[in-house]
């Protein structure tokens, strides 16, 4: 049975968004909207990252998909589709002669050839994008002062990212974390951090999480601080402990505070709280358990995690979790024993609630 025309309508996108929220598979959704699975994959990547060829696995992106954003991007592309470059071979020759040989500025070129060029901005754009062979900003009298605009633009972009990160930190501030978490009276609230390896020894690091009430620790390797690698590590955590995580508190490092990772945490784990800058004591449990990992007989500073297997990491965390706690409340129990106790209590409550 052949698939229908592959262009998605807004109604299709609404159906896709609805089925994704129901956690349906892409194969199932593709059948429901009568499209190829690859069409859905490109649609999700385009709507969430802006790039249909993005390599991020769709399992990390699909929960961020919205029909409105998908339609907006397509409409925006359609509006631009009819704009073809006005640069032809004749104009190219003129620009090569005037700029490369005579060192005219784009403004002077426009003044000399008003019927060919309407403004100098487009000429600067062509030079910047290397559309004119043998013409670079070095051919300009001021060595491409206008090209500094791109640098300034990047500075503004960096500032925008910083502002976005600040807004996220304010939106999910640890200052708004409820007392039930602060006082460790409820099981399922975790702290998260990253333990980096030796500089020059590879980009791998450990993503560490510790449950606040039991002090039970989990550590998962991540290939790098890139969002997709952090997501892969968190997906591994979700598969093993997801149903025991109600909230996560982390610092405001860029590896955690970005749209992909923040969205994943909110969708999969529940609540997110971000500690204040320069306040590691707000995640004191995580800081202490990380020091345990840094012991000389485990992963001291200078360790290259590229050379450490996940199996070895699991062995170390299991050994640490099996050591008795010295806190008065623990009665000498280990994090492992306390964690299992709280898991049994939680499972019992769920069974009773399901019975009714």
From TrEMBL:
Phylogenetic classification of the source organism: Bacteria, Bacillati, Bacillota, Bacilli, Lactobacillales
Pfam families to which the protein is assigned, alphabetical: HTH_38 (PF13936), rve (PF00665)
This protein's record includes keyword Phosphoprotein: no
GO molecular function: nucleic acid binding; transposase activity
Stored NCBIfam families: transpos_IS30
Gene Ontology BP terms: DNA integration; DNA recombination; transposition
Domain Integrase catalytic: 174-343
UniProt xrefs under PANTHER family: TRANSPOSASE (PTHR10948), TRANSPOSASE INSI FOR INSERTION SEQUENCE ELEMENT IS30A-RELATED (PTHR10948:SF23)
Protein name, per record: IS30 family transposas
Top-level taxonomic group: Bacteria
Keywords: DNA recombination
Entries under PROSITE patterns matching the protein: INTEGRASE
Any GO CC annotation of this UniProt entry: cytosol
């Amino acid at each position: 049975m052949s698939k229908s025309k592959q262009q998605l309508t807004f109604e299709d996108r609404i159906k896709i968004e609805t089925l994704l929220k129901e956690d349906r598979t892409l194969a199932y959704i593709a059948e429901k909207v009568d499209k190829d699975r690859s069409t859905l994959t490109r649609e999700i990547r385009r709507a969430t990252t802006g790039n249909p060829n993005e390599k991020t696995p769709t399992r990390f992106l699909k929960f961020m998909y919205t029909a409105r954003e998908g339609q907006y991007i397509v409409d925006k592309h359609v509006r631009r589709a009819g704009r073809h470059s006005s640069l032809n071979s004749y104009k190219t020759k003129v620009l090569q002669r005037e700029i490369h040989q005579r060192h005219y500025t784009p403004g002077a070129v426009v003044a000399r050839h008003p019927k060919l060029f309407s403004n100098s901005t487009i000429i600067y754009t062509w030079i910047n994008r290397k559309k004119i062979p043998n013409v670079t900003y070095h051919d300009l009298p001021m060595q491409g002062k206008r090209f500094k605009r791109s640098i300034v633009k990047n500075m503004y972009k960096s500032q925008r990212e910083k502002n976005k990160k600040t807004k996220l930190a304010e939106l999910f501030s640890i200052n708004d974390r409820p007392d039930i978490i602060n006082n460790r009276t409820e099981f399922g609230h975790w702290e998260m951090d990253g333990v980096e390896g030796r500089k020059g020894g590879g980009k791998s690091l450990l993503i560490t999480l510790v449950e606040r009430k039991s002090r039970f620790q989990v550590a998962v390797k991540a290939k790098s601080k890139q969002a997709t690698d952090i997501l892969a590590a968190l997906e591994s955590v979700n598969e093993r402990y997801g149903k025991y995580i109600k909230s996560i508190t982390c610092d405001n490092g860029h590896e955690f505070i970005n749209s992909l990772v923040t969205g994943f945490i909110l969708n999969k784990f529940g609540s997110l709280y971000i500690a204040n800058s320069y306040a590691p004591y707000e995640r004191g449990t995580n800081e202490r358990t990380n020091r345990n990992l840094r012991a000389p007989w485990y992963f001291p500073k200078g360790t290259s995690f590229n050379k450490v297997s996940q199996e070895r990491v699991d062995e170390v965390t299991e050994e640490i979790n099996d050591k008795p706690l010295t806190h008065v409340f623990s009665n000498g129990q280990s994090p492992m024993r306390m964690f299992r106790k709280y898991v049994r209590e939680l499972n019992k409550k769920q069974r009773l609630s399901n019975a009714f």
